[in-house]
Fold these 2 entries.
Entry 1:
Amino acid sequence: MQPWQFFVLAGLGCATAVTFLIRGQGVMAVLLVSLLMATTTLVGIAALRALRPLVSDHEDRSTVIGERTRAALEQEKANTLRTIKELEFDRAMAKMSEADFNEMSVRLRARAARLMKQLDAGTGYRPKIEADLLKRLGNAGESKASTHAERACPKCSTPNDTDARFCKNCGERLS
């Protein structure tokens, strides 16, 4: 059972008990007490969501699913790093105090580190990218992949990439 489910069940139980106790008081009293119980439940859930990250040791390493999420994380990381640069510029121009700079810098650097950890958690894309590349290239990609062993340099026998035109070791033109 999740902690938030406890608050919902406790709120429903309290509302039922109070409704049973004041059943002779009229409809308005029952509605007001039910509203009070619902509000108490929502406040409890909000307090749980606010305090849980502060007391739990759970590291925020959500998996990156899909290109859209990865792109959003990359954009957020770029924005955070840009904000750090602007903050350092403002401090250099004496637009903020050292205490304010330290406070904001620590928060932004922690955010950037968390974003980088999330992006690193989504590694392992190379096989997917290569499969997608072969799929997009179609038959041309298959023929190039099969000739990978034939792309050795005739002069120095260094293996080169399939799309290389010159040897990466000696610079000889590949045929």
Entry 2:
Amino acid sequence: MSPQRHSSIEARVPASTANLGAGFDCFGLTLDLYLTVRARVLPFDSSAKSRVRSRGARGSLLLTRDPEKNLILRAMHHAAAGENFELPPVSLAVHNAIPVASGLGSSAAAIIAGISLAFGISGRAMNEDSALRYAAEIEGHADNVAAALMGGLVVTSVRPDGSVVVIRKKWPKEIRVVAVSPDLELNTIGSRAVLPQNVRREDAIHNLQRSALFIAALEERRFDLLWYAMQDRLHQYCRQHLIPGLDRILSQPPSAGLLGIALSGAGPAVVALATENFNEIGKSIAAHFESAGLSATIRCLSVPDHGSTTTANPREK
């Protein structure tokens, strides 16, 4: 039986934060902020070309109308090439609520949306392992894309052959994420370029111990240990000069309801894990950005237990 192709399909993909302090390139956490993309297959002829219209958060590769540069279309074509099928020209309608180049997984969401749409349009059931491989090939790491695809907290590892290992963990519902985004765009390539090629053994041990403790503390509901478990020596200090105010944010003391603070992915957003006093915690972090001359947006987000979803032939809105 040939695959059942769809003329229209919609993907809804959540934002994500990665690292959570010590879990560099290991941990990903889903956030309830979404990218929605509807793809409609265009009548095929020799002159037909894909096109994009967009609204929502400003950004470049995510929302550009240039099909050659649009990250969603690039991901669609990458998946199609991997699955050996031809992708027809499509019209994309994009609504993005995820701030771009902020460290909240906008590129991962775009990539997962593109891969999901490619499978959906072709009528093929999406293979999770293949989707993760394609996504990691484009993104360069697996934490954000795995969280966007699967939901919840994910622990990731990439095998030497490029396949991705993911373990999904249950996230305590009482812990919410306060995400504070300064008015500053910081691309991942530039943020990774400042990281050292080699690290001291004691720093590697430091992060290994704390990333293991982070998972154990969640499982045992020892939330009092999360502040200690989120202390990092591998990446955050290297990025402080790129993000005004970050040094003071990371060195601020614990307060009521605040479980831990970390740079979100490559930044510049900062995330705080908290059980109460969400507004106060967000304002405290934003004040450090503001004292450094940056306005900031505060979002109090939950962690959805599901990742991306697709709907075939959705009703027009």
